[in-house]
Amino acid sequence: MIKVVKGNKEFYGTLLATCTAIISGFAIFANKIFIVDLDPTIFTAVRAIFVGIIFFIISSYQVKFDYSKFKKFNWKYLLAIGIIGGGIAFLLFFTGLKITTGGRAAFLHKTLPLYTTVLAVFFLKERVTPKQLISLIFLFVGTITLYSASLAPADLWLNPSLGDLLIIAATILWGVETVIAKKAMMLKESNFIVAFGRMFFGALVLFGAVLLLGKFDLLFALQPHQIFNLAASTIILFGFVLTYYWSLKYINVSKASSILLLAPVITLILGFWFLGEPAPPLQLVGSIIILIGAYMILGVKSQLRGEKAI
Fold it and tell me: Please, which residues have CB within 8 angstroms of residue 60's CB and are 6 or more apart in sequence?
């Protein structure tokens, strides 16, 4: 695995988080197309299990296939990460994405720093600078403004209001999951193991939902183009999880999640040009406010209370 000199941690962590933002910006737009004729539960469950298997292989290689070392892992953290972030949050997000616009979903998802920062201050003892606090105020105001922009239902966004609420709920849960993941890494857990826990245990939750909702037969009714869409989305998801969890190894969770705020610009432009998604003035204003908050937070150094910058 790549070794990073201590002095370069901030740079590599920021670079990885920026890669995550680029992937995320394209992912929400692409998934909006992929999920149109797919059940959200099936969509999330299939992707999660395959990405979980990939990270299991990577984790196995990391321990040289000595599975006795798996007993040393913090399973309670991995289970919590998987159930909260890899399971419930995914289901809420993609159910919401199916009934709202990709642009709105992208910007609402990028309010993640609001929740991760508050949780990180209390549970990880991360330091919040005055500049970071001001940026979070911008994020909050931008979120309220964006959500206030009403949209008339259409074929690709049947219920924007309900969809937005589901997106916000999923984002809050991802904030909880991200803080737990960072805590696990602070306890010297591998970022690959944490990613495996997120996707594999999340997949078990999602497949449980598939069975409970009586949708298992839909797995055997997938059409070739749906299988292709699932495969493409799985590759995108793997890239997102890989780069994001790797970034958490080097920088504060509050900063990593804030860098993701660069993604909505990509999603908004792609959705507007290719899907004809509306962009009401109030939504644009809210989006600009969110981006101002994101720009302010990019230069913040990762610190714990009482410590110097990393």
Answer: 67
Helix axes 9-34, 102-109, angle to 10 degrees: 150
Higher pLDDT, 68 or 167: 167
Residue 52 has pLDDT above 90, yes or no: yes
The pLDDT tens digits for 264-286 are 777 777 777 877 777 778 777 87
d(C-alpha 174, C-alpha 171), whole Å: 5
Domain count, the chain: 1
Per-residue pLDDT, 228: 95
Residue 213 structural domain: 6-297
Tokens of 209: 């939902």
263 occurs within a structural domain: yes
The pLDDT, as a whole number, for residue 70 is 66
Q: Distance between CA atoms of 103 and 118, rounded to whole angstroms?
A: 25
What average pLDDT score do residues 292-309 get? 64
292: its two tokens: 């101002």
DSSP per residue over 187-252, as a string? TT--HHHHHHHHHHHHHHHHHHHHHHTT-GGGGGG--HHHHHHHHHHHHHHHHHHHHHHHHHTTS-
Task: Report the percent of the chain where pLDDT is more than 90.
Answer: 31
Residue 15 domain-assigned? yes
Distances in Å between the Cα of 302 and the Cα atoms of 81, 174, 190, 250, 310 are 23, 20, 20, 9, 6
Task: Look at residue 267 and tell me if it is in a domain.
Answer: yes
> Quick count: other Cβ atoms within 10 Å of Cβ 162?
13
Please check whether residue 78 lies inside any domain of the structure. Answer: yes
Residue 28's nearest CA partner among 203, 295, 270, 259 is 270
Of 304, 295, 252, 290, nearest to 14 by C-alpha is 252
> Residue 113 and residue 194: Cα distance in Å, rounded?
20
Inform me whether the pLDDT recorded for 5 exceeds 50: no
